[in-house]
Amino acid sequence: MSKVEFKENTAIVVFGASGDLAKKKTFPALFGLYREGFLSPTTKIFGFARSKLSDSQFKERISGYFKLPNEADKEKCSKFLELCSYVSAPYDKDDGYIELRNQIEKFETSRNVKESHRLFYLALPPSVFTVVATNLKKNVHPESKGLARIVIEKPFGHDLESAKALTQSLAPIWKEEELFRIDHYLGKDMVKNLLVLRFGNEFLNSQWNKDHISSVQISFKEPFGTEGRGQYFDDIGIIRDVMQNHLLQVLTILTMERPVSFDAEDIRDEKVKVLKAFKPLNNQDILVGQYTKSEDGSKPAYVDDETVNPNSKCVTYAAIGCEIENERWSGVPIVLRAGKALNEGKVEIRIQFKAVPSGMFHNISRNELVIRVQPNEAIYMKLNAKLPGVSTSTTLTELDLTYSNRYKDFYLPEAYESLIMDVLHSNHSNFVRSDELEVSWALFTPLLNYLESDNAPVPEKYPYGSRGPKNLSAFLQKHGYVFESDDVYQWPITRPKKVLTNPGSPKI
């Protein structure tokens, strides 16, 4: 993250300050920005929650998740905590908001602030969004004397109807330009890099279409199960949890047309356009699964959670086929897949290109562009090359941009840090607009209704710690993905003891 101009004398209020989201994500992100010099020391931060905590208890609670890579950061932690204070009050009564307003005005007076700059972060469940937003507007909004921004966390509804209801409840209170719907995947550095990668490289942009690309995958893998959140997850499922939001957001950036500028509305206009070009999801073009006990019996099945119905059909793994009906993507199979309790934790984009024309080659491997979003961010291209030396064999190798190797001295911000910076500078590029939200829910709601109906398919069982349902490979092959055998692709390449001709070798 490059140095940017400070936003001076900002009042930041984190609602739900005593909750898990605030202590694990929001406050650590604010401290991370402060630690790295991106949050002005003139900032004032308030925690607001119902819990009865003393100021010292509040500070002890939020600092438990701060990252302190150096000894000097301990002093920065102390200075950051001096910027923080706590207000305990109910969310549905005026008194606490009036006290908050008085404290903010006291801070602004002490700093001789003429134009207020206030940021309200709602680390709260959706059930109280409207209540808090209404009371903030009534009691704490600076009105004509400055700017206010309000941030809300997902889920932005449970389906299309509830998403519309949420939008309609907030719209009369806060303007769309004041509202920031945060999807933390849009703050990940590799996701932010997609615009530059696609549109800043002609050798990629010119190939980014149905004439050259044979399939697209976006995959999300978690190595753990619901871990005590079974009752919550049973009402959500993997599709609502990460696919309708995180993965779809990534896919829209990956497939949209070139925006006319980096302006937030230009970018979001193109995202909405490509979403409207999606063909309705086919209920029969899906693979759903639910994890069982690990093969060694050490990890529990999903339904072993005592808060979960033992007959639950909740989907913990899903692969969904998508089609975009426009000139660029018509006929290109796209798969979104996500699952819990798998063999590894990883999020990646995989673009496989069409086969090399036959003639001088036979069965040569396909090119593939892989963008690893997490962990260990990387972009690499699989390509064919001749083995060094006297060999006439070809090998599948890669051009590798691994961030940890190439950008050793760069600070890579956490997603929440990056997005809070965007809010401070009123940049909506990486936030979800209301029409975008409704189009995405319109795409997924019919599928969710089907999966939660009496006619829903029984999820295929897969062991905790496995790669997922056994039919996954067949599903991906059906959607155009061509697998390479392990003996064709290896890394690193070592000098062969004997020159062998692999299936991709030229006919010479």
TrEMBL record:
Q: Annotated pathway, please?
A: Carbohydrate degradation; pentose phosphate pathway; D-ribulose 5-phosphate from D-glucose 6-phosphate (oxidative stage): step 1/3
Domain named Glucose-6-phosphate dehydrogenase NAD-binding: residues: 13-193
InterPro entries xrefs: G6P_DH, G6P_DH_C, G6P_DH_NAD-bd, NAD(P)-bd_dom_sf
Keywords carried by this UniProt record: Carbohydrate metabolism, Glucose metabolism, NADP, Oxidoreductase
User: Which EC class does it fall in?
Assistant: oxidoreductase
Q: Which reaction does it catalyse?
A: D-glucose 6-phosphate + NADP(+) = 6-phospho-D-glucono-1,5-lactone + NADPH + H(+)
**Is this entry keyworded Nuclease?**
no
Q: What does the record give as EC number?
A: 1.1.1.49
Question: Which GO MF terms are attached to this record?
Answer: glucose-6-phosphate dehydrogenase activity; NADP binding
| GO BP of this protein | glucose metabolic process; pentose-phosphate shunt, oxidative branch; response to hydrogen peroxide
Any one GO CC term of this protein is: cytosol
Domain Glucose-6-phosphate dehydrogenase C-terminal: from-to ranges: 195-483
What family does this chain come from, according to its entry? Belongs to the glucose-6-phosphate dehydrogenase family.
Recorded hits in NCBIfam families, A to Z, give: zwf
What the protein does comes down to: Catalyzes the rate-limiting step of the oxidative pentose-phosphate pathway, which represents a route for the dissimilation of carbohydrates besides glycolysis.
What protein is this chain from? Glucose-6-phosphate 1-dehydrogenase
Source organism per entry reads Pachysolen tannophilus NRRL Y-2460
